[in-house]
Amino acid sequence: MKLSTLHNMRWLVAAVAASLLAACASMGRPQGGPRDVDPPVFVNSTPAPGEVNVSRSKISILFDENVQVTDPMSKVVISPAQRTTPLVMAAGRRIDVELRDSMKSNTTYTVEFSDAISDLNEGNPIDGFSFAFSTGPHIDTLQISGMVLCAENLEPAQGMLVGAYANLSDTAIMTLPFDRITKTNQLGQFTIRNLAPGSYRVYAVNDNNRDYHWDRSEDVAFLSEVIVPSVSEGVAADTLEAADGSDSIVMRPAAVYAPDDVLLTWFNENYRPQYLVKNERPDRHLIELEMGAHADALPELTVINGPYAGRKLADMAVINGSATLDTLQYWLTDSTLIMQDTIALRATYLRTDSLDQLSPQTDTLQLMVRGLRQRLRREEQERKKQLKEWEERRKRGEEVDTTPKPVFLTVRMNSSSVYDVFQPIGLTFSQPLESLDMNGVHLLVKDNDTTWVEVEPPMFDRDGDLRPMQYVASYEWEPGATYKLEIDSLAAMGVYKQGNAPFSQTFSVRKESDYSTITFNVAGLDSVPAVVELLSSADKPLRRRPVADGKAVFDHVLPNTYYARLFIDSNGNGQYDSGSLTEGVQPEEVYYFPKKLPLKQRWDMVQNWNVYELPLDAQKPLDIKKNKPKPKPGEKNSREDEEDDEYDEYDSSAGGVNRNTGVRRNSGLNNSRLRRNSDRTAY
């Protein structure tokens, strides 16, 4: 009996141990229950939201669960701007913020966290959480809301600093820190909170050096008009959800802050200080200069040594330069100057001074041939090697030709095998040309796929005054034809008396059946000059056409998927121009065609396009938008699930439903309707 009892007890202990092991194993994979998708909830804080007469510099905010702070250096923004970076730390359910600047009296402070705060377990962020208090007897509550987009491509500006000045001087943005600041969210939206009554100028800046104002190299957006914020009584809609899953909308009184539709479009002045970056002489024949920025005039270069001291270098050289005059080549043409081992120049040009102004600067340049000694040593070694080889061949009884081999300049065409019917033909030579004998240029077309027939050749001319090595010609190509361009020997003569070797290159022209046409019927411009750009899938311009009589026609377009944008050509130069804050000029307005354009072969596509049909931030197709909001943990980006608006060959209109999700411009003015971002603000 005792043995039986002992045996049973052993089985009982084994069973209990097994059940405990099973329970321990199951703890690693809890089953059931929905995933937590709710962000932390604000409970209370010290000081309290909206508290006045606050003197302590440490803020503690309590939530209903453990929290974390992500990237506080860039996401947490405090107004007024802090010279010393504040400390932001998470401890359990609490967030502590310690201001390390001296507190200003009678000032409303705002701490904005963007999406930096999230729960510790699931990472669900609180979007747009903001906390405010005052060191004085009252708290300021006015707001300015809006959106920041890139002026050139309508990309939402994410994390861009937006600020307001009560100082209405045009120069405040260049010297003073912002009075109140905020940052844009992932949609480019912003709200400058807790403003005092008054008038303000509003700017957006990519504040790379964190000095809370604009430096000329930074991206910037500005409003031309002064803003006076206000508040009025209104109503807001709340959605209530019942236990059975049904919901209803309840209206409640609410404060309406204005303006809430400010549109800022950022640009960069492409400012670079002007100075002489590089000067060198890579070869006896060549002097190269590089400037730090675009220039309006050539530098004045004077030789100050040797037999030509006092003479202008430009009188003894051919200049090859960029259109912006920041990269220059001086091809020396005087043999005496070429043989000088060192050329000393006095260079006078405009340089940016300490006051950021252009002023005349004179430098002395000493230009020696780069690697001259090594080059001479190498040439001497090669000459000795050649002489030795000739001597050995003579000893073997072989005939030796010691005649120097001619050196030819090289010719290169701008396209090797296939040309578009509208494409000009271009030639690039290895040195500036002294002459090009058009009698030595021949164009042949293949007849019946067997014989070549000579036709009238293209008439080449220099591609600009400062492009002596590039020649270009327009020509009416026969679609589908095969051509051969021939240049006789020595028809091209360089400035160093080197001619070309015989040149021949065969190429074909695309057939008309390879192409299609896209026509845009543009509405809403009211005769304002505009240009339409056809874009690649990388959002890069491929072709431009001005809008004439309400139309922009792109013919001879190869089948592919395209996109389009339009810019208001304010100065009529046919090119997109960004703005200038220093001159008070806004960037030219840009609009996107809201659908992609899948173009088929031999297909005439016609699109009706009202540039004001959709809000501005809803115009750019999602396929080519780069700054997309990141999905929250555990969920997909809802916008990516939207059905893409593709071209319908049975309905060529570009109309659509106004989704009221962003900024709209009417008749070219910045009258906009902006959907307010839903945020949680503690006042």
UniProtKB/TrEMBL annotation:
Bias kind Acidic residues: ranges: 640-651
Keywords carried by this UniProt record: Signal
Any Pfam family hit: Big_5
Domain of life: Bacteria
Leader sequence segment: 1-28
Compositionally biased residues, Basic and acidic residues: 622-639
Domain SbsA Ig-like: residue ranges: 36-135
Disordered, as annotated region: 380-399, 622-683
UniProt-recorded name of the protein: SbsA Ig-like domain-containing protein
Organism of origin: Paramuribaculum intestinale
Top-level taxonomy: Bacteria, Pseudomonadati, Bacteroidota, Bacteroidia, Bacteroidales
